[in-house]
Amino acid sequence: MTPQERARRCADLMWSKDRASQALGMSIAAIGPGTATLTMPVRDDMLNGHGICHGGMIFTLADSAFAFACNTYNALTVAQSNQITYLSPGPAGETLTATAHEVARAGRSGTYDVIVMTSAGDQIALFRGLSRTIQGQHFDEDAL
């Protein structure tokens, strides 16, 4: 199995159980070893009192991209710590794109950066996620 095939299989298995990302209208645009790109349309029910995308929705999109990126090696991996910096608002009706990439991975720990952008290419948030690998795999590679 190639690293790309492994990443895709892990993403497909995770996606099939990820009710939260699905309910928010997210989709996986790209996946690869240590990287993931997810999109999410900003719906009216995602707007805050200022008429812009609620920060929690932007965080969730970034967190989902982070989760898919750090789970591409067929090792169960969870978030240990996350931080986000909001740079500009997420406009109503916009489709946001979160691109996560691996910065470092050593032992059971990983560091991932996520950039959230508008379709026009404007950065609206920067997210850093620290991951921790736990016991278990997404699928049994020996059974293939």
UniProtKB/TrEMBL annotation:
Residues 50-122 form the Thioesterase domain. Transmembrane segments: none annotated. Keywords: Hydrolase. It is an enzyme of class 3 (hydrolase). The keyword Transmembrane helix does not apply. Its EC number is 3.1.2.-. GO terms for molecular function: hydrolase activity. NCBIfam families: PaaD, unchar_dom_1. This is Hydroxyphenylacetyl-CoA thioesterase PaaI.
